[in-house]
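Priority: medium. Attachment 1 of 2:
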């Protein structure tokens, strides 16, 4: 599922909805969604890792309890919401690649809702600039985002870069495991 540009991107499974409604005044909610995802995915601050062993264990205990609460909440809201089945996407700061089988509205799609984190019921809602078949990936659509506020574009770029960097690190780690000493 290749993106046509060399910009950072990452692959994921998430619920996606195309809508005929424009995403007017979505900047504040998009920034809040991206900040919430960042908070959910954040690693402990460096001073916590360097602190005493007892404090580190205390932070890990609190973190584990919070993760359980987040998972419980996520399970509850998934039961209450009627979200589309998650699909495989490839996301960049300028657009995404998604399955051509994704349901589309009767009139042209003007916005896309991306539920990027399984524990977060709010969607990132972005304008659709162009939606077309992806010539590099049969059965896939290429969606280019429309005009996005600079602050949202910056936050989305940071989100994509973090995931892209994490995917590269995981691939490098997996490669090192498979090519270890013989």
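Attachment 2 of 2:
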């Amino acid at each position: 599922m290749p993106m046509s540009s060399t910009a950072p991107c990452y692959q994921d499974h998430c619920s996606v909805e195309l809508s005929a409604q424009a995403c007017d005044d979505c900047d504040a909610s998009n920034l809040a969604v991206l900040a919430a995802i960042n908070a959910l995915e954040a690693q402990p601050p460096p001073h916590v890792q360097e602190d005493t062993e007892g404090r580190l264990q205390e932070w890990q205990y609190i973190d584990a309890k919070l993760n359980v609460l987040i998972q419980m909440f996520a399970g509850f809201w998934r039961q209450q919401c009627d979200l589309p089945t998650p699909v495989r996407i490839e996301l960049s700061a300028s657009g995404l690649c998604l399955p051509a089988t994704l349901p589309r509205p009767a009139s042209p799609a003007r916005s896309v809702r991306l539920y990027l984190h399984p524990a977060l019921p709010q969607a990132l809602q972005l304008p659709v600039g162009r939606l077309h078949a992806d010539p590099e990936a049969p059965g896939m659509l290429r969606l280019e985002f429309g005009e996005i506020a600079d602050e949202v574009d910056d936050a989305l770029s940071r989100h994509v870069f973090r995931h892209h960097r994490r995917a590269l690190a995981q691939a490098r780690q997996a490669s090192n495991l498979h090519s270890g000493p013989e």
